[in-house]
Design brief:
alpha+beta, Alpha-Beta Plaits, 2 domains, four-stranded antiparallel sheet, 6 helices, 32% strand
Amino acid sequence: MNEKSIGLIELSSIAAGFQVADAMLKAGNVRLVLSRSICSGKYMVLVGGDTAAVQSAVAAGAEAANGCLIDEFVIPNVHPDVFPALGRTQPGEPNGALGILESFNIATLIKAADAAAKAATVTLLEIRLAMAMGGKAFVSLTGDVASVEAAITAGRRVVSEAGMLVYAVVIPRPHPDVYHEVI
């Protein structure tokens, strides 16, 4: 499957989440990336595929949400590092500076992670979404100091404009034990 785009629906109901996931998968030739409950009793459905299929799936999911829709988005031409970084740490060695960007919601954080990856030559280590974090989300990334600063600035802009910024940090030379906790 050609996964150039990603789409998300966030819901206020877990039960509605299953209904929406079903509608999304039936509406377009998409791959289910994540479908799960998240903190604060919400549910998220994340799909990937070609842009038209993802748009169709998100539209069908939003229609099936029956008043439970919190947020939705489609990112066409998503940066290829976003898919493997979702919900897990990528294997790899530390590559210089460490950047962390934290958001109050998952939808804005995924958009910010995409913007960060497109803004500079960095490696997305992990995009962690709302589990055991009170509904918050964060992205960790690595690269040379200037690239990490540029990426965090781009991502921070997206989160700040949405009013969802918790905190952002660039650590130029992290202690190896800090990296051990991230990777």
